[in-house]
Amino acid sequence: MKRSVWVIDDDEIYQVIIGKLIKKAAVFEEQHYFQCANMVLSMLESEEIYLPDVILLDINMPQMDGWQFIEELKRLYSDLEHRTQIYIVSSSIAYSDKERINEFPVVEGFVSKPISIKKLREIGEGIKKTNPVNEPGVNEFL
Fold first, then answer.
1. What dihedral angle (degrees, nearest 10) is formed by the CA atoms of 99, 126, 112, 31?
2. What is residue 134's predicted lDDT score, i.e. its pLDDT?
3. For the segment 96-131, what is each residue's pLDDT rounded down to a tens digit?
4. Pair type for strands 54-57 and 4-8
5. Among candidate residues 36, 31, 26, the one with its CA nearest the CA of residue 16
6. What residue spans define the domains of the chain?
7. How far is it, in rounded angstroms, from Cα 34 to Cα 5?
8. Which of 142, 126, 90 has its CA nearest to residue 5?
């Protein structure tokens, strides 16, 4: 199975670091990096891209935060939890942020920055999606 990951985070330095860690973890064959959640939604709506197996999502971003992004994804995909696994990756130490994932059953977990190679491997090797709903020609928008 070819595994894919998206990193959605507005911090350019973090993106460089996580990119190197993802390559070292060697569990994701495809990686894409985005600084703006709105841009990702636009690309999904126009069918330029398909959801990955895993999304590593920052919650504190300008224009649209991670929680808003998840709400929009749920609007686009009623079966989101079968299409991708979302992990909140944040430097936030606020207990409320960690608790809020309970409001979003589609979120697999909360990971504190910096994420480790070991954790990336756990995430990549633990992909539970078995339905190829993200393949071209199968991607349906609701």
1. -120
2. 46
3. 778 888 888 899 999 988 899 999 999 999 887 544
4. parallel
5. 31
6. 4-125
7. 11
8. 126
Q: What is the pLDDT of residues 60-101, one digit of tens each?
A: 899 999 999 999 999 999 999 899 999 999 887 777 778 888
What's the predicted TM-score (pTM) here?
Answer: 0.86
Bridge partners (DSSP) of residue 33 are 7
Closest Cα to residue 25, out of 118, 125, 130?
A: 118
Q: Please answer whether residues 68 and 37 qualify as being in contact, where contact means their C-beta atoms are separated by less than 8 angstroms.
A: yes
Return phi, psi of residue 56, to 5°: -100, 110
Residue identified by tokens 């954790």 is: 119
Q: What is the DSSP letter of 73?
A: H
Categorize the per-residue pLDDT at 49 as very low, low, confident or very high, splitting at 50, 70 and 90: confident
Amino acid 129: pLDDT: 53
Per-residue model confidence (pLDDT) at position 52: 96
Q: Where are the alpha helices (DSSP H) in 4-94?
A: 12-25, 37-45, 66-76, 80-83
Cis? peptide before 52, omega within 30° of 0: no
Taking domain 4-125, whether its CATH number is 3.40.50.2300 is answered by yes
Q: Which amino acid is at 4?
A: S
